[in-house]
Amino acid sequence: MKKKEKKDQGEQVLRVRLPRGKQVLGIVETRLGYGKSKIICTDGKTRICKVPGHLKRYLWVRPNNIVLVEPWELEGDKKGNIIYRYNKNQENWLKKKGYLKGLIEKEEF
């Protein structure tokens, strides 16, 4: 089998996925096991979030990653789904534009 080539993240940020509707940004605090993580969100709430099944193979999260969270309809204050993980260039862009103000005040990177 042929090995995949690593994509060069480069210096240029073309598009950054921003929160829409009920989605919020968050930082991964700890991994809890069984595909779940504890995430501190920009709305001031701490949620237990999981990666949905169709993204499990492609979306790997580690502590201190910036992620996009979609709260559940039921128990939305406590639980949610991780739907996107930002790379380092995108994180820097979000910090520069002020989207991570609530998170930076709470936790130092």
Share of helix among residues? Answer: 10-25%
| CATH class category | Mainly Beta
User: Strand tally, please?
Assistant: 5
Overall pLDDT confidence: 85
Unreliable stretches, pLDDT < 50, 5 or more residues?
Answer: none
Which topology does CATH recognise? OB fold (Dihydrolipoamide Acetyltransferase, E2P)
Strand order of the largest sheet: 1-2-3-5-4
User: Which structural class fits the helix and strand makeup?
Assistant: alpha+beta
Largest sheet: 5 strands, mixed, barrel
User: Which band does the percent of strand residues land in?
Assistant: 25-35%
CATH superfamily (homologous) name: Nucleic acid-binding proteins
Number of domains: 1
Number of helices: 2
Query: What is the CA-atom radius of gyration, in angstroms?
Result: 14 Å
Could you state the order of secondary-structure elements as H and E? EEEEEHH
How far do the termini sit from each other?
38 Å
Which overall shape is indicated by the principal axes computed on the Cα atoms? Answer: globular
**What's the oligomerization state?**
single chain
Indicate the CATH architecture: Beta Barrel
Describe the protein:
With 109 residues, this protein is α+β, with helices and mostly antiparallel strands. Strands 1-2-3-5-4 form a five-stranded mixed barrel. The longest helix has 10 residues, at 88-97. The chain has a single domain, classed as Nucleic acid-binding proteins (OB fold (Dihydrolipoamide Acetyltransferase, E2P), Beta Barrel). The radius of gyration is 14 Å and the shape is globular. A hairpin with a 7-residue loop joins strand 4 (66-71) and strand 5 (79-85). It starts with 23 loop residues before the first strand and ends with a helix. Helices cover 15% and strands 31% of the residues. It is built from two helices and five strands.
